[in-house]
Design goal:
It is built from two helices and 13 strands; from the N terminus they run ββββαβββββββββα. By secondary structure, the chain is mainly beta. Bound molecules: dtdp-4-keto-L-rhamnose.
């Protein structure tokens, strides 16, 4: 596995080492010792999987208490993945980072606690798997409005009519009114 930095402090991209042969491929998707040494010294306590159809946007989510660090990867299809730094003392506070994650490129994104995270599906469907450093706590959920112009996220959306959003995400909080870390 190879790790690279991003313009946002502590957000990291992990690139797998793939062993291909006539049977197919093999790669290690996670190693606790390597992750602690090269990425972040954290423990993961929950893993999630979601399937989303084309045009789905989920985000921008965080938990204001029990904040979750997330290690995100795509196991089928492709998404435009976005994180926002909500850590007030951070030099990159309020800044976004975007990346294409796909089953094909095998990239994983490390999103530390204190970030809002979301994605938009750019293939016919996409399945995400992500590990979290804290448990789901719906009472602390916050959805920052994906389309808030303060965030200036350049979503690759062609047709707003076909956008699939949850009620919670349609009514997300504006960035200026959000709870920060
Ligand atoms: C996130 C989550 C949801 N659920 C349930 C609640 C609800 O009935 C159903 C769907 O929940 P949501 O609509 O919140 O799912 P979703 O919009 O996919 O939420 C996820 O979005 C991405 C962008 C993230 O970063 C995640 O942390 C998480 O917030 O699943 C759990 O049981 N455990 C969980 O950890």
């Amino acid at each position: 596995m190879k790790v690279s930095s991003t313009p946002i402090n502590d957000v990291k991209i992990l690139e797998p080492q793939v062993f291909g042969d006539k049977r197919g491929y093999f790669w290690e998707t996670f190693r606790d010792d390597w992750f602690r040494e090269h990425v972040a010294d954290v423990s993961f306590v929950q893993e999630n999987q979601s399937l989303s159809s084309r045009g789905t946007l989920r985000g921008m989510h965080c938990q204001t208490q029990q904040p979750q660090g997330k290690l995100v990867r795509v196991i089928s299809g492709e998404v435009f993945d976005v994180v926002i730094d909500l850590r007030r003392p951070s030099p990159s506070f309020g800044k976004c980072f975007t990346i294409q994650l796909s089953a094909k490129n095998g990239l994983q994104l490390w999103v530390p606690p204190g970030f809002a995270h979301g994605f938009y599906v750019t293939s016919s469907s996409a399945e995400l798997v992500y590990k979290c450093t804290d448990y789901y706590a719906p009472q602390f959920e916050q959805s920052v409005l994906w389309s808030d112009t303060d965030l200036a996220i350049n979503w690759p959306i062609n047709d707003k009519e076909t956008l699939k959003l949850s009620e919670k995400d349609r009514n997300g909080v504006m960035f200026k009114d959000a709870i920060f870390f």
